[in-house]
Each structure stands twice: as C-alpha cells, then as structure tokens.
Design goal:
It comes from Ferirhizobium litorale. Its main location: membrane. It is found in: Cell membrane. It is a single chain. This protein is 71% helix and 0% strand. By secondary structure, the protein is an all-alpha fold. It has a single domain, classed as MetI-like fold, CATH 1.10.3720.10. α3 packs across α10 and α12 packs antiparallel against α13. It is globular. The relative contact order is 0.13.
C-alpha cells in the first residue's frame, strides 16, 4: 500500500520570535492608529465618506498653523544641523580631546529622545517668567529677557530653541558616522595636489557629505514637525501651530470636530512621510560614497 506523501508544515524560525514584541508594538501603536486616522479623515460624524474634512483644511486659521509649524521645523532643523555638524566635526577630527567623544555620543543618545512634558518643564524652569536664567539676569544684571532682548519662551523662537535640545543631539548621532566615513586618502590626495583645507572641504568633503546633510535636515524637519507633546506642554494655546489646533478639535468639546482633527493629523502624516522618504533616498545615495 502506498503511503501518502509526507507534507512538511512551514515553520517559523525561532530567531523571528524575538521580533514579535516589536511587531506587535508597531502594529498597536503605529500602524493601526495611523489607519484609523486616515479613515477618519475621510468620514463624517455618522461614518459616511466625505472629502469635506480635507477641503476644510484650507479654512480659518488652519493654513496659518501649518505655515507656522513648517517655519518652526525649518528653523530648528537648520540650526540643529549647523550646530550639530560643527560639534560632530570637532569631535571626529580631533579639535577637542578624544575623551569627550564617548560622553558626548552617550548624552546625544539620551537627549535626542528627551521631549514632551519633561522638556517643556525644564525650559520653563530655566527661561520662563520666573525661570532660573530669567531671575538671574533680572536680579544680577538688570536685564529683562522679554523687554530688553525681546525673548519669550512662549513664542516662535522660544519653541524653536526648545526643539534644539533634541535636534542637535540627533544631528550629532547621524552625521558623526558620515564624517568618520571620509577617507584619509582623499585628504592626503588633496594636500598632495596643493589644495588648502578650505578647498578640500569645499570641493571634496562637502560634496560627498551633501546628501547626508540634506537627508539629515529632512529628518530633523520631520522630527520637529511631529513633536506634539512638547509644543502643547510649553506653549498651550499661546502659539497657533498644528498640534495645538489638532488638540482643540479632538479633545471632545462641543465646538470640536474630531474628523477635522483626523484630517489635520493626516496632513501632518503626509508632510512627515515626504520628509522621511527624502531622508531615506538621500541616505542611500550618500552610502554609495561612504562604503
């Protein structure tokens, strides 16, 4: 009697089981909420399909809130890129003692994830109306930040400076490996050909690093544009930015429109997704040179 052929059941490699907690976490707190937001952006309160929520993004103060958020993101990304690049270059190329590199990278790893209410409280306790620096300047030097210097922590530049606390460390973490990837042979060849240090950076190093720099700028932009908790905790309703407008729509008041809030969140998702796609594409181009 012929026996039925033995069929092997597909088995999941045990090595993949370690990824299951991560996959479950991503599905529950990233993928499913994103799908819910996208669906809600095209629904009315009774669940029927509509494009009115998307159309309403061009009404009231919503366009200006997007514009202010974009300007804050661009400003914090530009400053974070410049300062972070200078600090990373100083550490990688030996302008500062080598023993500073490890503590700086460790601090950058922690500070790049330090945001939300704790960060807002830290800056309010430092630069707020009764903050440490504010009181010190007023009592010791007679300088009032808002009157004499025009600085207010609850303003455009106040939120931008707050964002720099995590933007600069993130820039250091990303650009340091790119700087370390610059080959010594390129610098030696430039020296042999009589190029100065400025010419080397202008004609060799910066063109090679340009995709990494531009890609990191796009990532910092997305990082700032998607920062919600810090903005709400720091400025409350004093600054008209997208997270504040979104919170006002979905918090449940009778004047709120949750589906319009979903549409605003959908707009934020689109903008941050574009920035991240640009970052990934430029990162892949940069790796061709740095391999």
């Amino acid at each position: 009697m012929n026996q039925a052929p033995h069929t092997r059941r597909p088995r999941i490699p045990l090595t993949w089981l370690g990824l299951m907690p991560f996959v479950i976490f991503v599905m529950l707190f990233l993928v499913l909420p994103t799908i819910h937001i996208v669906i809600g952006a095209f629904q009315t309160r009774d669940g029927s399909f509509t494009l009115q929520n998307i159309i309403d993004l061009n009404t009231g103060t919503i366009p200006s809130s997007y514009w202010i958020s974009i300007k804050i993101s661009v400003a914090s990304a530009a400053l974070g890129s410049l300062i972070g690049f200078a600090m990373a270059a100083a550490v990688v190329f030996g302008a500062v003692p080598r023993w500073i590199k490890s503590p700086l990278l460790t601090f950058s790893g922690v500070a790049s994830n330090f945001a939300g209410v704790p960060l807002a409280f830290a800056f309010l306790a430092t630069f707020g109306p009764v903050g440490l620096v504010t009181v010190l300047l007023r009592n010791s030097f007679g300088i009032v930040l808002q009157r004499d210097l025009g600085f207010n922590i609850l303003s455009f530049w106040g939120l931008t400076i707050t964002y720099l606390f995590f933007q600069i460390p993130l820039m250091i973490l990303i650009i340091a490996p790119a700087l370390e990837g610059l080959r010594r042979e390129w610098r030696e060849a430039a020296d042999i050909l009589g190029a100065s240090a400025m010419q080397y950076w202008r004609m060799v190093a910066l063109p090679i690093l340009f995709p990494s720099l531009l890609g990191t700028f796009a990532l910092l932009f997305a990082n700032a544009f998607g920062a919600v908790a810090t903005a709400i905790a720091l400025t409350g309703s004093s600054l008209n930015i997208v997270p504040i407008q979104l919170f006002a729509q979905i918090r449940g008041d009778v004047l709120g429109n949750p589906n319009l809030g979903y549409a605003m969140a959908f707009g934020m998702i689109v903008i941050t997704a574009i920035a991240n796609v640009v970052y990934i594409w430029l990162r892949m181009r940069a790796e061709r040179w740095l391999k």
